[in-house]
Amino acid sequence: MGVTHPSAPAAQTEPSVRSSAETTVEPGLDPAWISDTVRRTLSEDLGGDPGRDVTSQATIAVSSGAVAHLVARQEGVVAGLVLVQEVVDQVSARFGLGPVRVDLDVVDGTRVEPGRRLAVLTGPVQVLLMAERSLLNLASRASGVATATRAWADRLEGTQATVLDTRKTTPGLRALEKYAVRAGGGTNKRMGLYDVAMVKDNHVVAAGSVTAAVHAVREAFPEVLVQVEADTCAQALEAVAAGATFLLLDNMSTPTLTETVAAVRAGEGQTGPVELEATGNLTLDRAAEVAATGVDYMSVGALTHSAPILDLALDLVSR
């Protein structure tokens, strides 16, 4: 398979109070990335480190404890719950307050209905309220991406095509959003400019030709997978002749995709297997007909750049 998964370790953060449910999404998020992202997210909301919450700190006693429920207000697929414990742990540490116990009722990748309880949080009220918006922003964003991805994965079920994400992600949240794609049943293509080479039209212009661009990448980075973008059947065949084994078929109509896939497959006896990815102008309504052309993948930037959040809430239920 030409697509790549992130190289981050599969292990999750080790919470101060262990959650009752563990993620089944692999590979998991890098604990160092989780810690840094949560730190920056909290500092943004609290105005620094440690920062302050002028409302909660003025109105709630340090000794006051409570139970809160994290709930889904919409139907969808949840993701990002693996960050909840880290958020409350960091708030507790910043202000020297007691720990919050997080008991997860579901794992990332679970389909949920409106009103479904996702987790029970027990601990100081100040911590719960100072952590509330940060944990909701992260989990709601990730859950929105997972929900959008699941719609594509469901539509492609029973076909040979897999939905891929792109690099069109929120700055600073790429690891989370690509994790959420996996939670929703999709696959990551590449994490960045460093792990897969993608020869696009501007590279071809700069190098002089498709062949020159492919050879230049292979000479400089022989260990890296090279993908070539093609807008026409002729360009696709030129790329294969140059040695490309992974093609990005960009903004092709269904008839052109059908013609291109057939032409490339016809030559695989000599070239070896070539992986084919359709991208551009893809919608759920077109998913089945594009899959029927025989492509291996469909990359959909909207999974990350346009997915609406999944509405989640943190509600105090007792004090």
UniProtKB/TrEMBL annotation:
<dbReference type="InterPro" id="IPR037128">
    <property type="entry name" value="Quinolinate_PRibosylTase_N_sf"/>
</dbReference>
<comment type="function">
    <text>Involved in the catabolism of quinolinic acid (QA).</text>
</comment>
<dbReference type="GO" id="GO:0004514">
    <property type="term" value="F:nicotinate-nucleotide diphosphorylase (carboxylating) activity"/>
</dbReference>
<feature type="domain" description="Quinolinate phosphoribosyl transferase N-terminal">
    <location>
        <begin position="53"/>
        <end position="143"/>
    </location>
</feature>
<keyword id="KW-0808">Transferase</keyword>
<dbReference type="GO" id="GO:0005737">
    <property type="term" value="C:cytoplasm"/>
</dbReference>
<feature type="region of interest" description="Disordered">
    <location>
        <begin position="1"/>
        <end position="30"/>
    </location>
</feature>
<comment type="similarity">
    <text>Belongs to the NadC/ModD family.</text>
</comment>
<dbReference type="InterPro" id="IPR027277">
    <property type="entry name" value="NadC/ModD"/>
</dbReference>
<comment type="pathway">
    <text>Cofactor biosynthesis; NAD(+) biosynthesis; nicotinate D-ribonucleotide from quinolinate: step 1/1.</text>
</comment>
<dbReference type="Pfam" id="PF01729">
    <property type="entry name" value="QRPTase_C"/>
</dbReference>
<keyword id="KW-0328">Glycosyltransferase</keyword>
<keyword id="KW-0662">Pyridine nucleotide biosynthesis</keyword>
<dbReference type="InterPro" id="IPR013785">
    <property type="entry name" value="Aldolase_TIM"/>
</dbReference>
<feature type="compositionally biased region" description="Polar residues">
    <location>
        <begin position="13"/>
        <end position="23"/>
    </location>
</feature>
<dbReference type="GO" id="GO:0009435">
    <property type="term" value="P:NAD+ biosynthetic process"/>
</dbReference>
<dbReference type="GO" id="GO:0034213">
    <property type="term" value="P:quinolinate catabolic process"/>
</dbReference>
<dbReference type="InterPro" id="IPR022412">
    <property type="entry name" value="Quinolinate_PRibosylTrfase_N"/>
</dbReference>
<dbReference type="Pfam" id="PF02749">
    <property type="entry name" value="QRPTase_N"/>
</dbReference>
<feature type="domain" description="Quinolinate phosphoribosyl transferase C-terminal">
    <location>
        <begin position="145"/>
        <end position="315"/>
    </location>
</feature>
<dbReference type="InterPro" id="IPR004393">
    <property type="entry name" value="NadC"/>
</dbReference>
<dbReference type="InterPro" id="IPR036068">
    <property type="entry name" value="Nicotinate_pribotase-like_C"/>
</dbReference>
<dbReference type="InterPro" id="IPR002638">
    <property type="entry name" value="Quinolinate_PRibosylTrfase_C"/>
</dbReference>
<protein>
    <recommendedName>
        <fullName>Nicotinate-nucleotide pyrophosphorylase [carboxylating]</fullName>
        <ecNumber>2.4.2.19</ecNumber>
    </recommendedName>
</protein>
